[in-house]
């Protein structure tokens, strides 16, 4: 595949893709609208190309990107699964896609009903009592949940609770979120089987414990059966417990965070409920709470008064407003369509996600090390530690070689507690033939590493560019075109 020139390099003076008609209304000179000191002294250095050149350039660029519409995308802990096109059709319906978030409530009753209904459904799935759709993504949902816990303790005059406990198998955003909210982070180690060390937990809880943040299943792809006991330990110390629902797609219909003892939970609609993911957004990280935290929910909430749906701003204990409008409504609408399509059979999502992950793990455990020797949930974590020690082939080399197979590599070097980690999440949307092709590729790479390690270490060989200096790219990125 040849190198693709930059759009600026295709530019020819005088070319244009569109000609605007003359204005049929009075035109105000730009000098009267914008202060002189803010006006450009010379035109912007924009590329000048024809319409067909622009179309071909960006189409060629898109064909060099990898996405779930192109091939398998087993990115662990991120659920890069197929998004049904019916979801897109629903989100683009005129009454959903063409409404404005500041319209009077009486003009968007259908949209408010959708939010109200979706809240009830997600509360049923999670075992929570109320839900807010304001958080724009998972990490935003985490921050919302931790701020709710903080507000709860403040409302009780309990100002000494400065610590948040985070297991070492949690998502990396958990400790970052707790620190951002002003808490001191206390890390609890995992047992060899991936569960939280209960004795270690008992040693760190106390009157200064605000709460515990837990991902279950964890980033190891393992369910912790002691979740209820963990919640009891934290509650007995006066703290609350937060559920990171990023991996909720493994347990829907089988277990609910609310029944495990969790007080607050966030969901990733852009993962579990099949809405777009990646590329910077949009996302949605709704947060559900038990009744004790309901007074502190962000404003406004959607309430049903008689047959009407209204915005409720009268919440004096609220943590405030966390989004420019009321959340990413289009993403919620997509999740609504997805949930409506599955109905009571939503648990099938979890069944196939878990089946697929265990299928991959069962085939690859003969070649790669296991992070924990037990059945996994929605994702499995392998390791190339032995390969690295025997022939010098590292996890990064395996990921690069997978590019030559036309498959996006899994997440690598995470979770951090697993040396040379390879985190694979096949999702429920992939069929057996796709999984077999991936497994075969991983086995071929393993055998090649044994027979010809240098070929693996020098991969990829079929991509537009070869092995990049990733450290240099991260520290000195060149993202801007500078015109001569």
Distance between the termini: 28 Å
CATH architecture of the largest domain: 3-Layer(aba) Sandwich
- Report the average pLDDT across residues: 93
Radius of gyration: 25 Å
Query: Tally the helices: what do you get?
Result: 17
What's the assembly state of these chains?
single chain
Structural classification: alpha/beta
Helix content percent band:
25-40%
> For the report, how would you describe the main beta sheet?
7 strands, mixed
**What percentage of the residues does DSSP assign to strands (E)?**
5-15%
- Which blocks of ≥5 consecutive residues have pLDDT under 50? none
Strand order in the sheet with the most strands:
1-7-6-5-4-2-3
According to DSSP, the number of beta strands is: 13
**Could you give the order of the helices and strands?**
HHHHHEHEHEHEHEHEEEEHHEEHHEEHHH
Find the CATH superfamily of the largest domain. Answer: Type I PLP-dependent aspartate aminotransferase-like (Major domain)
Whole-number tally of structural domains: 2
CATH class of the largest domain: Alpha Beta
At the third CATH level, what is the topology name of the largest domain?
Aspartate Aminotransferase, domain 2
